[in-house]
Design a protein that fits this description.
The complex is a heterodimer.
Chain A: H1 2-25, E1 29-30, E2 39-43, E3 57-65, E4 72-77, E5 95-102, E6 129-136, E7 146-152, E8 158-160, E9 165-176, E10 180-188, E11 201-204, E12 206-210, E13 219-221, E14 231-237, E15 244-248, E16 255-257, E17 265-271, E18 282-286, E19 297-304, E20 312-313, E21 327-331
Antiparallel strand pairs in A: 1-10, 2-10, 2-12, 3-9, 3-11, 4-7, 4-10, 5-6, 5-9, 8-9, 11-20, 12-19, 13-18, 14-17, 14-19, 15-16, 15-18
Chain B: H1 2-20, E1 30-34, E2 44-50, E3 53-58, E4 78-83, E5 94-95, E6 109-111, E7 117-123, E8 139-146, E9 153-158, E10 168-173, E11 179-184, E12 194-201, E13 204-205, E14 209-210, E15 221-226, E16 232-236, E17 246-250, E18 252-253, E19 256-257, E20 261-262, E21 273-278, E22 284-292, E23 294-302, E24 311-312, E25 319-324, E26 335-340, E27 346-348, E28 351-355, E29 360-370, E30 376-387, E31 400-402, E32 406-410, E33 421-427, E34 433-435, E35 438-442, E36 447-457, E37 467-477
Classes of the chains: A mainly beta, B mainly beta.
């Protein structure tokens, strides 16, 4: 009997301690494991928006827990634009610049400009201290391989008290050419291997990504529903009418949202229930089944009722939301 | 003692008689008993049930020597309170005093719902002329407050529709305080004394309205009493009665008063019978009769069983609405909801309705088809429903019938597991009863009748007899 109780205690301890670890372990790959997105995408600035990139840059933020004191690396998979994976337009002539920023001005909760969503003259999303940058062209030695930025000292980030983390930012810009650079990130404690950092996560406010080239794969993104949100306004760009987008949560079995055609934005509102605050939604991207749309690149942004942008976390806060069906019944008067 | 024994034996015989007549409709049976506080040789009338006993009016002597008379030489009526000594005996009545005592006739009376405001009949003063021996004041209604001592009427003020040219009196107020009924021979009636009512609107009594020709005849209608149930009792000497003044009751049906119903003997007699009041359950009450020469107050008791507390019949209902609670919040959902009800039937939709055939255990299953992925989630949610019959006596009877139509009533669907039912007792709500599992009934008058079915078991161990009561309303419409 005592043995049984001990086993239960151990199991409980493992569950309590292990569950958050389990959730966060996948925080470092960008796109995240649960997102099932093959690649991020950024086109050279000479590309056409109809190819799936609305602004030719993409910003991601990494949060490093305060109590993590060791150096870390931001590894970029396939940073060049050429060879495998990338989307050629004529011939590969695109240069892509990756820049890592830390320090004051990076944290997007304190500095809205840093999110990269503001447009106009004088707006600069490259805020903070530039810690490292590198330009990649069509270079076989980086094709289908990693390039590691770093080492970075966690204390070089912009500290966010709410998340108790240091925030870093990586900006990918298509500085010339018109090809699509497809790439992924991995936040690692090792320059040569993908070694996750416990408790770290990655997020963005504007997701530019490549859809799968098959019918069955379903991609997901996980916006976090912060306090005070009563509805969200989604915008999707250049979806090419490629199937359906469903919004799922513990309380939503799958609300369809209107989808965009080539080179246009479509917006709609999604109501948020009080119980959904403090958790993540699951935006599911289901490919069209009748005809395969290949090399489809899309952009998704979300904002709340006040116009504030929502974060998409690579590792969903609160875990992947799973719909909980709720069967109700009530007595009615018999029909005579 | 001998009288009490006789009373008990009579009651037993009546019950036995009723028991033997299974399936037969029984007339109402009342026992009447003369009240102990009556004085022979004097008039004792118009009882009113109050918390501590009975109030009534009498022209008795105030003491062995004192005899108060009016200008016309007749003894004056006063209001008395006979307090209950115990459940059967009364103390010596005490007179209620007021400024009008010993000057005018006072009474009958009634109480407003507050229990403190008294409406009573007295005389409308007509000045010097009233001192003429041959002059008789007309009656009017007066309003007073009952003092804390319970026997003084203070702050007396006249009712606004009193008139020295005609009689206004015998007030009775509905339990909600909104309607005041009274008798009057004011001009414009059906003849003789008629019944009128006023409605209390915006803090004042509205103009009196005649109750109409169904209630008022060309003869005398007086002594109205509005019972808490809504039944209006009154006295009338109209043709068709048992003799002289008889007690009738009527009820409002669809906004109009029904044809009055003559109460049976022994409440009514060939003499004057009037001023009936009753307890809320209508099982007991009091009335006045001069069947023994003088006006005297009698108590009546119904031998009919009618429960004050009786559950309303609940129909067994196995109909349900099922829904996916989150799905119904949104207009368009790319899902198909397929329900299996566990009885071999299915339905599709986010909201479905289904009536099960009867009691049983049903496992309701919801399968969901994602119309985008075509994926079917079987058993996404299940719900076990255990449906049982309601444990109750059951009245099988139509809801609506015509007057003079014979109907069959059955208790056959009674569901009281473990009960060995010895008797099915029916109270039809019109002062008639029947005994038996299946009975017949004819309602003579339109109205809404509340039927009670009272079932009782054989004596169980320890002599315990279990009893259950269920009631159902039946609407009787006028025979086409």
């Amino acid at each position: 009997m005592k043995l049984n109780i001990s086993i239960y205690k151990i199991l409980l301890l493992v569950l309590l301690l292990g569950f958050p670890l389990f959730v966060e372990l996948y925080g470092q790959p960008v796109p995240g494991k649960d997102e099932n997105i093959p690649f991020l995408v950024t086109f050279g600035k000479d590309g056409l928006t109809s190819w799936g990139d609305a602004d030719f840059y993409q910003i991601f933020f990494f949060s490093i827990p305060k109590d993590y004191g060791k150096p870390f690396y931001i590894r970029v998979f396939d940073p060049d634009c050429g060879g495998e994976n990338d989307e050629i337009q004529g011939e590969f002539n695109t240069k892509t610049k990756f820049s890592v920023y830390g320090g004051k001005g990076v944290d997007p909760e304190k500095n809205e400009e840093s999110r990269g969503l503001l447009k106009g003259v004088g707006v600069n999303y490259k805020t903070g201290n530039l810690l490292a940058s590198k330009i990649f062209g069509n270079e076989a030695k980086y094709d289908n391989k990693y390039y590691s930025f770093g080492p970075f000292n966690p204390s070089e980030g912009d500290f966010n008290t709410r998340w108790n983390s240091n925030i870093f930012k990586i900006v990918c810009e298509g500085i010339s050419g018109d090809d699509g650079n497809l790439y992924r990130y991995f936040l690692s404690s090792d320059p040569n291997n993908d070694i996750p950092i416990e408790g770290a996560n990655a997020f963005t406010y504007s997701y530019h990504f490549r859809m799968w080239n098959n019918f069955k794969s379903v991609s997901h993104i996980y916006p976090y529903i912060d306090t005070g949100i009563v509805y969200i306004r989604q915008s999707n760009f250049d979806w090419d009418i490629d199937g359906n987008i469903l919004v799922v949560s513990r309380y939503k079995q799958g609300i369809p949202v209107p989808i965009s055609n080539q080179d246009n934005w479509v917006k709609s509102n999604i109501p948020i229930e009080p119980q959904e605050v403090g958790s993540s939604l699951d935006f599911q991207f289901h490919k069209r089944q009748e005809e395969l749309v290949k090399n489809n690149n899309v952009v998704v942004t979300l904002e709340n009722q006040r116009g504030d942008a929502l974060k998409f976390f690579s590792s969903p806060i609160g875990g992947v939301p799973v719909y909980q069906p709720k069967l109700g019944y009530e007595k009615i008067k018999p029909k005579k | 003692m001998a009288r009490r024994l006789l009373y008990i034996i009579t009651s037993i015989l009546i019950v036995l008689f009723v028991s033997l007549q299974t399936s037969a409709q029984q007339p109402a049976v009342y026992q009447v008993k003369r009240m102990s506080f009556n004085w022979n040789g004097f008039s004792n009338i118009s009882p009113v049930i109050v918390k501590d006993g009975i109030m009534f009016c009498s022209n008795r002597r105030l003491s062995g020597f004192k005899d108060i008379t009016g200008y016309d030489g007749r003894r004056l009526y006063n209001i008395y309170l006979a307090e209950k000594k115990d459940t059967s005996e009364f103390r010596k009545p005490r007179v209620l005093k007021s400024d009008r005592s010993n000057k005018f006739n006072n009474g009958p009376l009634c109480f407003a719902p507050d229990g403190k405001t008294v409406y009573f009949t007295s005389e409308v003063e007509t000045g010097k002329i009233a001192e003429n021996k041959n002059f008789k004041n007309h009656s009017g209604i007066f309003i007073a407050d009952l003092a804390d001592n319970g026997t003084d009427l203070i702050s007396i003020r006249p009712f606004k529709y009193n008139n020295p040219q005609y009689e206004v009196g015998q007030p009775s107020i509905s339990k909600d305080g909104k309607y005041l009924f009274f008798a009057s021979d004011m001009p414009g009636g059906q003849g003789g004394s008629d019944l009128y009512y006023c409605e209390f609107i915006n803090g004042d009594w509205a103009q009196p309205l005649n109750l109409g020709p169904k209630v008022n005849s060309s003869g005398i209608e007086n002594y109205p009493y509005i019972h808490p149930s809504g039944k209006l009792y009154f006295a009338s000497n109209r043709p068709g009665g048992i003799g002289k003044l008889d007690v009738y009751f009527t009820s409002l049906y669809n906004g109009s008063w029904e044809d009055p119903f003559l109460l049976p003997e022994p409440i009514n007699s060939t003499s004057d019978d009037f001023a009936l009041v009753a307890e809320p359950n209508l099982q007991t009450g009091y009335f006045t009769s001069n069947r023994r020469r003088d006006d005297q107050i009698y108590e009546f008791a119904s031998t009919i069983i009618r429960k004050a507390s009786c559950d309303t019949l609940a129909e067994n209902n196995y109909c349900y609405r099922f829904f996916e609670e989150n799905a119904i919040k949104y207009d368009t959902m790319p899902f198909r909801y397929e329900w299996k009800f566990g009885d071999g039937t299915n339905a599709t939709g986010p909201v479905v309705e289904h009536c099960f055939r009867g009691p049983g255990t049903y496992i309701v299953q919801l399968d969901v088809v994602n119309l985008i992925t075509k994926k079917v989630t079987y058993n996404e949610k299940t719900q076990t429903l255990v449906l049982t019959e309601i444990e109750q006596p059951y009245i099988s009877a139509p809801d609506r019938i015509s007057s003079n139509q014979k109907i069959n009533l059955s208790a056959d669907s009674t569901n009281l597991p473990g009960w060995k039912i010895a008797q099915y007792y029916w109270n039809f709500g019109d002062e008639t009863i029947a005994v038996g599992k299946e009975v017949e009934k004819i309602y003579l008058k339109p109205g809404i009748y509340n039927i009670q079915l009272i079932v009782s078991t054989e004596p169980e161990s320890g002599g315990l007899v279990r009893e259950a009561c269920i009631s159902k309303n039946i609407i009787v419409i006028r025979q086409p």
